[in-house]
User: Fold this.
Amino acid sequence: MPTLTYPLAWLAAISLPLLAAIYFLRHRFRNQAVSSLLLWQMQKESREGGRRIETPKFPPIFFIELLILALLVFAALGPRWQLPHTTRPLIVVLDDSLSMSAGPAGQQPRDEALKLLNEILEQRDFASYQLIAAGAGPRLLGDTVPHPDQLKDQIPLWTCTAHAADLDAALALARNLRKGEADVLVLTDHAPAETDLPPGRIRWEAVGKPRVNFAFVNAERTPHGEGDRCLFEIANLSASAATNTLRVTVGQQVVYEKRLLLETNRTHRVTLPVPATMGTLRAVLGDDALAGDNRAALVRPRRRLVRVQLSVTDTNLAQLITETLAATGLRAPTNQPPELVIHQSDTLPAGRETWGMHFAPVPEKAERFTGPFVMDTTHPLTHGLTLPGIVWGANATATNAPGHLPIITAGNVPLVTTRTDRRGREQVTMHFATAQSTVQDTPQWPALFWNLLNWRARAQPGLPENNLRLGAEVPYRPRGKTATLTFPNKTEKTLEAPGGEIRLPVTQPGVYTVVSGSQTNRLRESFAVNFLAGAESNLSGAVTGKWGGWGTEEEVRYEYASVLPYLILLALAGAMAHLWVIARQRGRT
Assistant:
């Protein structure tokens, strides 16, 4: 709702200088000698309007006339003012994703959004003000404030570095804060997913522009034989073909450089074999609209091997397991102290952190099961497993022991079960008869043992992975009860780990270092966090536009009151004063 409903009425303001002109222009007189003034009614020189300019001598009536005209002109403009009891709270949802910082300084969507927000705050009053940053999850930038000037302390917390913007979650939070009674303003760089916005008084303002942008969409470094294999994927996330340069370095050494020419929405993949001893690789793209997705770092991955002790009396089974463990590539060259004991004994293996895999005894004539097999597909042991067309020999009378979780079953017969003992160690029980089974002749057998060793390796102190995407959880098992995390900007933070595992607070890309343990048993690891979000780096869909609003035109009008009656009353009062002055001066001025 504008403050002045009919701004075209400003044309009536021309009457104000016309009134003044009347008092500037005077009649021109000529002196004339006469014999007597007896016959003259008015002996004073007339001061009525004329054509000669003289020094103005404004009588009081002029100011009354000027005030009346000004009131009438202002009334013609149709001024309205917002009623205090109809003002609503304002909740501003700010897109906190990286794309809001695209473009040159001063022309970024964040800058345009701030300009628009300031214009809205100047045009209209609200009962209170609240800012919500919409990143991967919504977060309040501060408390509710009664005056817009108090938002200046919260605006710097809007950093625009998130890998995604969950605007739907932010809108849900905004509606819950005021139970739908607030006006919600969304400032972003893209259009809403659906034309119809969620119910409520929501105004969606997009201030983005399509730009040319190259970005890293994938970066991995994994152990491969004696060395490592590095993978980089670069995409042209623009509406047109473009060029850029990729450079990969280790320290001051350039290990790869190439000029890239990519069509729109095309991806270029680079695979680099590097020695396992090579330090951190840093890949950089040339300057474009968005700088935050032009860098990727890959640190050396930790080769996690499991110390496995084999205590199986069955010669054939022992030979089979030995060959299978070697095929996984996850078995350490030593088995002391053991982290996993594969045995046929009924007693649990010794060791505070020793897991066990128990091959339960089976009769000589075991039952052959051909399926259907039921698996808990969410368990680490069954990752990627399929069991079609196999034969699994087991004891048909086997039952699920108390406290054991069935992982693979044939009907109601358990084949693989797990149990967590009171020390937190995992104990796996397998019912398996070699002579009556064919599963060991399929890829599912080594996959099962690879899952077992990988599950045990991920439970070791330290990080399960050393190269991650921004936004992914970073679990860490420290040695001891505390860990020290060093951020990319070299600041440090001490973290408590009372439960044995923590989630590292990673909110920005870069290379981190985490240290835990005593001086004699210290564990120090580095890990890289990269911005790899193709959807966020795609600037071709950025738009400028407006959707929704704060109520219909009729609803908004009820929130404003017209000042016209008061101006007309003042003008009438001025007219009465005008008549009173004329009557008092008896028409002589």
Notes: Residues 564-584 form the longest helix (21 residues). The chain has a mean pLDDT of 88. The domain at 84-209+542-562 is CATH 3.40.50.410 (Rossmann fold). The CA atoms of residues 92 and 185 lie 5 Å apart.
